[in-house]
């Protein structure tokens, strides 16, 4: 039964609701589980199908059109190396990705715990940190296309 009477106001002794009650426990883990299964499946394929062999995956569109590396160039090869526990090889393909993967895992764990407990979603990262991260990605993008830095940053 609704707490709202025909006048559009709350009935006496009720409080406004912020929507349906939050799911807790296993039912709340559908989102995190779907992400984990999708990412896990993609990583299994990536572990089996080597991106270093030509023809298995498409070329980076930015690299194809401009001849310059984007911040994501080498990510498939880096993830392939990480699935084989080759952190040094992954670092050589895309150091930014190697630094971002643990952060993404931490966010996923926080999301999973928050979903399990039924706590409301909060802003995880202040806007300043998002801007700092985007600035670092832009700096990495520029730096990996400087010929003198190519041996360290190019895939």
Automatic annotation (TrEMBL):
Pfam families: DUF2752
Region listing for Disordered, in residue ranges: 1-25
UniProtKB keywords: Membrane, Transmembrane, Transmembrane helix
Coiled coil start-end: none
Transmembrane portions of the chain: 26-47, 59-79, 91-112, 124-143
Cross-referenced InterPro entries: DUF2752
Identification of the protein by name: DUF2752 domain-containing protein
Species of the source: Cellulomonas rhizosphaerae
């Amino acid at each position: 039964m609704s707490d709202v009477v025909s006048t559009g106001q709350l009935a006496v002794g009720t409080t406004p609701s912020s929507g349906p009650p939050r799911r807790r426990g296993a039912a709340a883990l559908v989102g995190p589980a779907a992400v984990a299964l999708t990412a896990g499946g993609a990583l299994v394929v990536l572990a089996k199908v080597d991106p270093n062999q030509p023809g298995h995956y498409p070329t980076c569109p930015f690299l194809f059109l401009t001849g310059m590396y984007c911040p994501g160039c080498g990510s498939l090869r880096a993830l392939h190396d990480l699935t084989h526990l080759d952190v040094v090889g992954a670092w050589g393909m895309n150091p930014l990705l190697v630094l971002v993967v643990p952060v993404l895992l931490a966010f996923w764990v926080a999301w999973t715990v928050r979903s399990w407990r039924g706590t409301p979603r909060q802003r995880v990262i202040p806007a300043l940190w998002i801007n700092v991260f985007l600035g670092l990605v832009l700096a990495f993008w520029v730096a990996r296309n400087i010929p003198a830095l190519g041996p360290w940053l190019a895939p």
